[in-house]
Specification:
- It comes from Nocardioides bruguierae.
- This protein has nine helices and eight strands.
- It is of the alpha+beta class.
- The chain folds into two domains: 59 residues, Winged helix-like DNA-binding domain superfamily/Winged helix DNA-binding domain (Arc Repressor Mutant, subunit A); 182 residues, Beta-Lactamase, CATH 3.30.450.40.
- A hairpin with a 2-residue loop joins β3 and β4.
- The radius of gyration is 19 Å and the shape is globular.
- The N and C termini lie far apart (52 Å).
Length: 252
């Protein structure tokens, strides 16, 4: 295993953790020997890619990563902006662009329709993987074993419609793989629905794009939203299969 691979394992583990991790915890999570994990951490710390937590024992991601993240973020936005704008005009609803952020998904860009919802989502806002269509769309790009790993632990119910049973979620993710479309019908916020798809974007990043609307408009806008998402470069939406999923989602 190369030094770069070991460093990547460490950084991924820290990114997915909700708290600082000790050397022993990182060794356990990555499968590295404790001595190897410690050597990699020392090198990463020298470059400020990781830092010791000021609040408790353990390591967290460091400011040295910003120089990589900022450039990548700007390329991601530039590569997708025009496509998001076209989609927003077609559906006349808010359109969000999102990517993985550890065990969550974060909105990195948005085209807001002037006549539609305001304040439901915003750039920089994080959502759970299980309680959002952008999260489930991204999970559908991963193998089941990884999906179950990311869904470990108690899952929060944001509304009565939130699915918190892992087996049900895995089955739903499998359906998303078949159709290319994920649905959120008031699973995160009452009165709000969304339809999303995920794919490898023009920068090589795994990304999700969603159309967000008032839930009472889901039936009316379903075909338009799905058809517009299907036209995104790189998207693999099975429009015919998604029509059947519409009924399963309750969009009648």
């Amino acid at each position: 295993m190369s030094v770069l691979h070991r460093a990547t394992l460490i950084l991924d583990a820290l990114a997915e953790s909700r708290r600082p991790l000790t050397v022993s915890e990182l060794a356990t999570r990555t499968g590295l020997a404790r001595s190897s994990a410690h050597r990699v951490l020392q090198s990463l710390e020298e470059e400020r890619l990781v830092v010791r937590s000021p609040e408790t024992v353990g390591y967290v991601l460091g400011p040295g990563l910003l120089k990589f993240g900022m450039g990548s973020h700007l390329r991601l936005l530039a590569a997708n902006r025009s496509h998001l704008a076209v989609l927003a005009r077609e559906v006349n609803e808010n359109v969000d662009l999102a990517v993985f952020s550890g065990r969550e998904v974060v909105v990195v860009d948005q085209i807001a329709s002037p006549a539609r919802l305001r304040g439901v989502t915003k750039v920089g806002q994080s959502f759970s993987l299980h309680g959002s269509c952008i999260g489930k769309a991204l999970l559908a790009q991963l193998p089941d074993a990884r999906v179950r790993e990311l869904l470990e632990g108690p899952l929060r119910a944001f509304t009565p419609a939130t699915i918190t049973d892992v087996d049900r979620l895995v089955a739903q993710v499998d359906e998303v793989r078949r159709t290319g479309v994920a649905v959120d019908r008031e699973e995160h916020d009452r009165g709000i629905a969304a339809v999303a798809t995920a794919y490898l974007g023009p920068t090589g990043a795994l990304q999700a794009v969603s159309v967000v609307m008032a839930s009472h408009l889901l039936a009316e806008k379903w075909d338009l939203a799905v058809g517009s998402l299907a036209r995104l470069p790189g998207a693999t939406v099975d429009v015919a299969a998604a029509r059947a999923q519409r009924a399963l989602a309750g969009a009648r």
